[in-house]
Specification:
The complex is a heterodimer of chains A (242) and B (200). Chain A is mainly alpha-helical. Chain A is 60% helix and 7% strand. Chain A starts with a helix and ends with a strand. In chain B, helix 4 packs across helix 7 and helix 7 crosses helix 8. The chains are: A mainly alpha (242), B alpha+beta (200).
Chain lengths: 242, 200
């Protein structure tokens, strides 16, 4: 559980931002949790992940990543159903079956080469497709960016993860491996954040928001995903295109 | 053929219907020139080092991006009240930051490819859609928005996997301008450039 929380913290840490009238009424509390998560990450998780990335060969890392992607895939499949997407549902089910069997328990990913690439759905995206807005942005301790809309996602993800139902003797070390491996996969992302961000909290919030919108619409936001903000005096400021 | 091929074909057809093909071509050329230079910097990364990559990319990036428009958008209302000297300094620092960011992150070559998918008009702009394809086949979507400036099509925004660089920067920069002022923003961006210089 903690490891899972840690892995989410990392994901959160690297996801992404807003400003005045920014839909962030809890900003002051969020910033406290952001700093807490960041301290934990900088002092424990990131250094461990860096060592792991330096030591573990790529095939091992890929195998571990594939395994956890596969074991958490029931969550995507269930949300395909909730979102009423039969095409993706069949493909994702096929992907899960192929990778669990031919892929030796998910360690390998033959399904992608067979036309069943990895997709990502969760409860927050499902609420999004049902028309729910973000509500308010949240930074959760250990878990990072979330919102009113997305707060149920990790709960459903945990409930649909078969590893949850194993003994703690197994889940704790396995979860720790997942956390470290997942954090290692985000080292590039966090490096870019550290490099680019003047205010990492805002950077993370905005990037996370945009990424969520992109995911909710499966990479094709409505109206061609184009938004144009017209500045005063006829200056057309074009901020978003997908 | 595949759905993707169909979609690309349709995109190209639509682009042809709504905009002069020459414009769309010009926009594509701008993006493809940038990509070609990025690939060159990646291929020659070890021999060039950070400084070499920076020097190689400086003219290309400055020729490809419209830093006037970008400056206006990312600083929001503050752009209107800033004086000419402040604007000029901001543009200079921001362009070096862009070059430094490319020089830092495009620091090695593992068989990556840039693929141009097509272009489509959007009001007074053109969107050029591309993929950065990694060796393992993973595709990173990179969409460029270009606007015409002195008869040239220049990049005003890059959208990587749905994340718009301009809106990210605008949100962050407006927070800094609000709490510390315009000059402090420019100064802090300059510090970012220096940090990258020390990076490698």
């Amino acid at each position: 559980m903690l490891a899972l929380a840690l892995s989410l913290l990392v994901l959160g840490g690297c996801a992404s931002t807003s400003s005045t009238g920014n839909g962030d009424p809890h900003e002051s509390l969020n910033r406290k949790f952001y700093n807490f998560n960041d301290t934990l990450d900088k002092n424990i998780l990131e250094p461990v992940a860096k060592k792991y990335a330096a030591v573990a060969p790529d095939p091992v890392r890929n195998g571990i990543t594939n395994f956890f992607d596969n074991v958490t895939y029931l969550n995507t499949i269930a949300n395909d159903v909730l979102q009423g997407k039969p095409g993706p549902f069949f493909k994702d089910t096929g992907r899960f079956l192929v990778n669990s069997t031919i892929g030796i328990g998910g360690l390998f990913d033959p399904a992608t080469g067979m036309g069943m690439p990895q997709r990502n759905e969760d409860l927050g995206q499902t609420f999004g497709t049902w028309g729910a807005n973000e509500g308010a942005y949240l930074t959760l301790p250990f878990m990072g960016p979330s919102s009113y809309r997305d707060i149920g996602s990790p709960v459903m993800g945990i409930l649909l993860n078969p590893l949850t139902y194993l003994s703690a003797v197994v889940t704790i070390p396995v979860g720790a491996v997942n956390a470290v491996n997942a954090r290692a996969n985000l080292l590039d992302a966090s490096r870019i954040r550290d490099q680019a961000a003047l205010d990492p909290y805002t950077f993370v919030r905005e990037a996370w928001r945009q990424q969520r919108e992109y995911e909710i619409y499966d990479g094709n936001p409505p109206g061609d995903g184009f938004e144009e903000y017209i500045e005063g005096e006829g200056d057309a400021a074009i901020l978003r295109v997908y | 053929m595949s759905k993707m091929t169909m979609r690309i074909a349709i995109l190209i057809l639509l682009a042809g219907l709504f905009t002069s093909p020459a414009y769309a071509d010009d926009a594509k050329v701008t993006v493809e020139n940038l990509h070609a230079e990025l690939l060159a910097a990646m291929r020659r990364a070890p021999e060039l080092g950070y400084r070499g990559r920076y020097d190689l990319l400086y003219p290309t990036v400055n020729a490809a991006f419209d830093f006037e428009t970008i400056g206006r958008i990312v600083t929001g209302a503050a752009w209107k009240t800033a004086n000419e000297a402040q604007k000029a300094e901001f543009k200079a620092v921001f362009s070096t930051l862009s070059v430094a960011t490319y020089a830092t992150n495009f620091s090695g070559y593992n068989g990556e490819k840039f693929v141009t998918l097509g272009s489509e008009p959007k009001r007074n702009a053109i969107i050029v859609k591309t993929h950065l394809v990694k060796t393992d086949g993973e595709k990173i979507s990179l969409n460029y928005m270009l606007r015409e400036h002195n008869d040239m099509w220049l990049i005003v925004n890059v959208i990587a996997q749905g994340v718009s660089d301009l809106s990210l920067k605008r949100a962050e920069y407006s927070a800094v301008i609000q709490s510390e002022g315009f000059d402090s923003l420019t100064k802090r961006l300059g510090e970012k450039v220096k940090e990258m210089n020390h990076g490698s």
